[in-house]
């Protein structure tokens, strides 16, 4: 007797189809043989299924059985396909004939209950489109269906229920599930704290406001102890609330990284240490890194020059592509990495260059060597460069930082600018000005008359690259959006030019 | 970086009478100009040039634009590189004297500058044969050539035991006129230049002095806030910048101009070459 069910495994963020075939022989010593699986814990899984059967009051066939997984060698343990294996054993034993287009996914515990899975988050509309039939997954599993496909999703809580529905047919009705399981919706953080109570540094705060509003990568330079790290940490709280789509993406990234879903927050803030390796920052074919953990949030690199040069260089393509792609055993693996990069660094090794009252003792060669650690092509990927001087003048004048109480005006400003951008850019599939593609930049960033002459003068004075011009336009678009202006004025453009990394050689 | 072709060997150019202790020949890359005794302007200073030093050089070369001076310096980082850069920008011929064979670009970070010096009609010269590596003792030897090739030597910034002081010593030995840029008496990098001034070097106060000495008849009117600024706000910015070097926030609070407006004025002033920014701090030119 032979029965086949369809299932799948989730590798990285890719859903790979599997067939599970069970054959029961009428002769031979009773035992279960598993083929098509690399090494692993198959015997224990089968033993668990057997226990689950008896605890659910079902009969486990006492015959010689072969369980084959096709394609072979794709998986190394049965953890995620215990439910489909159980179903195929159950159905073959009851004499059903295979040939339905039912899909099963999930694990089983020894009591016979199905184990909720978070990996089902990757079975999104993209995957489901073009598929027909019924999908059975454990109850409380994450599944978000916008109902743009012909797949009917059912959530089952135990093996016993499945047996009732499929074999006994005693009128049990299944509820089609469309909404995501609420236990996994991360709490939307926000409302508390802003950077308004950080002393002084009006310029840096303004630059960060622009950076957060338009998702522009920002580099803060300044002597130590001026508040760079503090400002970066507070920025996470100023982050605009994400859309439902963003929340799903953040959740996906968290699940990919093996983060417990309860720990996923809506504004990821990652601050890797300078000793981080390429593998743990960018990721490897087997495991995503900090870049993915910071997806739709902030990746903050403090003391940026001190990271390993190799790590900094590998970051460049990630910044450009907003994702990381690998191949793992023939399966393409793609990790999302659309983060806002906030860099912070001193001006020299001792950290005092640029400080008003403390003298830096580095020599010119040391400063050159230090600056060389971050090369020009990486610097160019920062849309905004700002200096944090922690001006002593400002600090002595103010005894306390101004605390925002109920509502923070800057946060409101950011919120408005973000909604303007989302409306404008929705048809391009992006939500921030930093993502405006080259071919639409001139259409979206329309300059007033004197602004375009200012841009021409700037380009010829500083010899800016095409990329630099494109980035200046994008930043000035965000500055205009913060003021709800439809056209970019010369003042907006001038501010964007000020933030640009310029090569002002004599 | 080693170039394949060997350097030319030329007789040491005449520089105002026989001077003892100089080599007979020089290795040259590029075209060695003539007339050092009339047009040679040596510029030396600290490797760690301060914004003050940059400002002095910027202003000087603003007035030296399109003069036929030969700017002689030592090619190292800091003041020397700025002197070469500004000279090229002003259309002057510039000569770099190396402490090593002139096929070696030392420091290697200046390789672009090296090419531009040669392309700009200037020369890279050395008394050492190709492939000769720089040693500690080759720097003072290099400095004596800078002194010999200059009619006037300008010392921008120097600490007490620096190479610039050695150059100044040779320059006085060869009877060259030395201009020393005075500075803060408590700063290490001005200690040498102040000492030179105390010992009788000419105190450099404006480009006009140096131009007179070099025999250039060009109107020198130092630009100040009132003449160059187009409106009231620009002159307010310039008057603050003449006193000190503030960052953006300080400039905004000192002038009382709000940030968004200030941005536009600053960029326009930068484009007009009235002010410049380095490390987030603004300086007047």
UniProtKB/TrEMBL annotation, chain A:
Protein name: ATP-binding protein
Keywords from the UniProt entry: ATP-binding, Nucleotide-binding
Presence of the UniProt keyword Transport in the record: no
Keyword Ribosomal protein: no
Pfam family for this entry, one: ChlI
CDD domains reported in the protein's UniProt record: AAA (cd00009)
Residues of the Mg chelatase-related protein C-terminal domain: 408-500
Ranges where the Magnesium chelatase ChlI-like catalytic domain occurs: 195-390
One Gene Ontology MF term: ATP binding
TrEMBL record, chain B:
SUPFAM superfamilies documented for this protein: MCP/YpsA-like
Gene3D superfamilies xrefs: 3.40.50.450
Alphabetical GO biological process terms: DNA-mediated transformation
One Pfam family here: DNA_processg_A
Stretches assigned to the Smf/DprA SLOG domain: 19-214
Matching NCBIfam families: dprA
Family indicated by similarity: Belongs to the DprA/Smf family.
Protein name in UniProt: DNA-protecting protein DprA
Organism the protein comes from: candidate division WWE3 bacterium
Name of the gene: dprA
